[in-house]
Design brief:
12 strands, 10 helices, 330 residues, alpha/beta, three-stranded antiparallel β-sheet, Rossmann fold
Length: 330
């Protein structure tokens, strides 16, 4: 039995079965390229070969891999166990220094796929691995990836008009850029897939990096994205809250107040910008949770309920004419 089939059968089982599901996530899953062959080749001054590092100790129940030197972005596919309406493009975090594949990618994808949401985990190019920072590259990768996901709607039985993005930390920043992209952010079309919409239908941002401006910027992400000392105009251009318009799709925001890596002010800045633009937004603030927890919060901790909160929010986000906003805190 495949890992996906086994986990579908374990949907209501206990934590031991969940750990086994997560440990086997991505084994045997299809991986598809984001770009056609030769479109994203190695560039002068950039990485030449993919590197994957395992951080988990030998024998640990869960893997903890990250990728760097991503030359050819790709998507790992987690088809829904049962046909569902929507799909997710998942963008793991890593401070734009790495892409955290298991903890914020494959594990979340497995969870949502078992519950009817086809999920696609992307490894995107890292902007700081070039002679000069290339903030355009991860955004172009995300735009193309969303279109590739839509192109697989018939194969995986979801609605091409219900494709959202789920991003964590720096991946949340990238998801925010994707949701707020402007016409001049678009890359030049390369094939028929690029006729599909590049804007997500909804966005889920988990403890996201939002601003590139002091005092609340995550310095590491900003340096990798824009360089050591970007001027205020450049930092503003790449701050998600500064890019929000009435065309921004509905957003689900979640952050822990005790996050010592990415200040909770990032989520609050974006919430205020979305409210001002009358974009539907739901904000969940938790007193504790820290940063980078993915699905690995201890059972019973309030922040561990976030996947269920997303599933409850989804029908509202994609309902025709959905309006309004709400905020909850814990």
């Amino acid at each position: 039995m495949s890992g996906r089939g086994f986990c579908a059968g374990m949907k209501r089982s206990g934590r031991c079965a969940l750990l086994l599901c997560l440990a086997t996530a991505a084994l045997g899953n299809e991986t598809i390229p984001v770009w056609p062959a030769g479109v994203a080749p190695p560039e002068p001054g950039g990485p030449a070969e993919l590197v994957v590092v395992e951080r988990a100790a030998p024998g640990a129940p869960l893997r903890d891999r990250y990728a760097t030197q991503i030359v050819e972005p790709d998507l790992t596919v987690f088809p829904a166990a049962d046909a569902g309406r929507c799909a997710l493009l998942i963008l793991p975090g890593g401070g734009y220094q790495r892409v955290v594949m298991d903890k914020e990618g494959y594990e979340s994808a497995q969870w949502f796929a078992v519950r009817g949401v086809s999920s696609f985990v992307m490894r995107y190019r890292l902007p700081g691995e070039y002679a000069e920072p290339r903030p355009d590259l991860p955004l172009a990768d995300a735009q193309r990836a969303l279109r590739v996901v839509r192109s697989h709607a018939a194969e995986h039985r979801f609605d091409a008009g219900c494709v959202g993005v789920l991003g964590f930390s720096a991946g949340g920043h990238l998801a925010g850029l994707l949701a707020t992209a402007r016409p001049d952010d678009l890359y030049a079309a390369v094939d028929e897939i690029d006729t599909l919409p590049a804007r997500p239908d909804f966005a889920v941002l988990m403890y996201p990096v939002v601003t590139m401006l002091a005092p609340h910027a995550h310095a590491g992400s900003r340096e990798k994205l824009l360089g050591i000392s970007p001027d205020a105009d450049l930092a503003s251009r790449w701050s998600v809250d500064e890019r929000v318009t009435a065309r921004t799709p509905p957003v689900f925001l979640l952050h822990a107040a005790d996050d010592e890596t990415v200040p909770v002010d990032n989520a609050l800045l974006l919430y205020r910008a979305l409210r001002a633009a009358r974009v539907p937004v739901e904000l969940h603030l938790f007193a504790t949770g820290g940063h980078g927890f993915g699905l690995r919060s201890p059972p019973g901790v309030p922040v561990a309920t976030w996947p269920e909160l997303v599933l409850r929010w989804l029908p509202q986000a994609v309902a025709p004419g959905a309006k309004g906003s709400s905020a909850t805190s814990r």
